[in-house]
């Protein structure tokens, strides 16, 4: 990455302090003292009339910049507000985006078996198709079921699933996913204590679940704070538009930008995604 591309997340060089700059040196004299915000009168030197005396120096406190106001919805993860504050301090792009989009924070999810299954099933249904198409396909599939439960998916007829628009491969993937839940092949009770990589490895053992799907599960269901889904096209597009003026971005470029986001990559990724929705 070139230095120009790296500008938005780099630490700014410290500018010289006023005290470091050259100044004209005159005879030493006691400085006038005035209350803050009150004009300080400078007496004219001997032999100089008041008309030719230096102009009044006005001493005024510089107003502090107003703090950005965040409007986070109820139920956001406990770390979300602190993550926003730190990201706005570190990253110029997020300093602009987060106050604009803070009302769209990650929604809470019920932590239960059926919700976990539904989250993964929806990821499978939406693979390799546009977001709008994925939503339509999911709605058609979910209408086949009274509830999104693995036991009910296993009772569906393949022909009905195909008629809803699912490919043969996605039908196989959904059946394998349902079997993992009904046969207790997943260590759901241990997920809270497991690291991100361990959960990703367990989920990727299911047919049709890629690393992208597993990382999205960590974000949307488990609400892990430091997930960086580099295989996500939306994240790469958002980094391109917000940090590189729309120029092509490699995974290496994206990873370098995200160095400033740690340990809150999930939160940064969320607002980069939301920024795409605001694009004209």
Q: Would you kindly provide a written description of the structure presented here, covering whatever features stand out?
A:
This protein is mainly alpha-helical and 280 residues long. It has helices at 80-90, 92-101, 113-125, 131-142, 150-154, 158-163, 168-182, 196-204, 211-220, 233-243, 251-258, 265-277, and strands at residues 39-40, 57-58. A two-stranded antiparallel ribbon has the order 1-2. The radius of gyration is 29 Å and the shape is globular.
Which helices and strands appear, and what pairs or packs with what?
Elements: E1 39-40, E2 57-58, H1 80-90, H2 92-101, H3 113-125, H4 131-142, H5 150-154, H6 158-163, H7 168-182, H8 196-204, H9 211-220, H10 233-243, H11 251-258, H12 265-277
Antiparallel strand pairs: 1-2
Q: What is the 3D form? A: globular
Task: Quickly give the structural class.
Answer: mainly alpha
Please state how the strands of the largest beta sheet are arranged side by side: 1-2
What portion of residues belong to β-strands?
under 5%
Q: Could you name the key traits of this structure?
A:
single chain, 280 residues, mainly alpha, two-stranded antiparallel sheet, 12 helices, 2 strands, 1% strand, globular, disordered N terminus
Outline of the structure:
By secondary structure, the chain is mainly alpha-helical.
């Amino acid at each position: 990455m070139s230095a120009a591309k790296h500008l938005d997340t780099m630490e700014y060089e410290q500018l010289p302090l006023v005290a470091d700059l050259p100044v004209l040196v005159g005879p030493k004299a006691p400085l006038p003292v005035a209350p803050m915000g009150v004009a300080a009168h400078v007496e004219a030197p001997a032999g100089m009339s008041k008309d030719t005396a230096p102009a009044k120096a006005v001493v005024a406190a510089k107003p502090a910049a107003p703090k950005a106001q965040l409007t986070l919805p109820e139920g956001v993860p406990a770390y979300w507000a602190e993550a926003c504050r730190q990201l706005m301090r570190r990253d110029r792009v997020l300093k602009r985006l987060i106050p604009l989009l803070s009302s769209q924070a990650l929604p809470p999810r019920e932590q239960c078996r059926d919700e976990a299954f539904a989250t993964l099933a929806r990821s499978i249904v939406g693979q390799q198709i546009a977001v709008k198409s994925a939503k339509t396909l999911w709605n058609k599939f979910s209408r086949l079921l009274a509830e999104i439960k693995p036991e009910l998916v296993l009772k569906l007829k393949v022909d009905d699933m195909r008629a809803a628009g699912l490919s043969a491969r996605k039908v196989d993937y959904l059946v394998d996913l349902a079997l993992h839940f009904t046969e207790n092949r997943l260590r759901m009770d241990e997920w809270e204590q497991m690291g991100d990589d361990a959960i990703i490895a367990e989920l990727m053992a299911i047919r049709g679940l890629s690393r992208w799907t597993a990382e999205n599960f960590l974000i949307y269901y488990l609400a892990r704070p430091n997930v960086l889904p580099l295989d996500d096209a939306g994240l790469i597009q958002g980094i391109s538009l917000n940090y590189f003026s729309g120029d092509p971005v490699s995974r290496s470029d994206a990873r370098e930008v995200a160095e400033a986001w740690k340990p809150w990559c999930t939160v940064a990724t969320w607002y980069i995604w939301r920024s795409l929705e605001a694009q004209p």
